[in-house]
Amino acid sequence: MAPQSADTAAEIDLNSRQQNILISFWGPQMSTLESLKETVKRELPAWLESDPAFREAIHF
Question: Using CA atoms, how far apart are residues 60 and 57, in angstroms rounded to an integer?
Fold first, then answer.
């Protein structure tokens, strides 16, 4: 894995076969786009359900 830079929000490791996108501001456990996607899948439903405007919008 390429080193992360604090100066850059995202870096693309073009040498990788999978062309991982490194999201440096998410920290070490969130270093790839895939792990970011997994976190969003896990956290977004609970966050949306806790949002009163979203709950109101989906309960028509």
Answer: 6
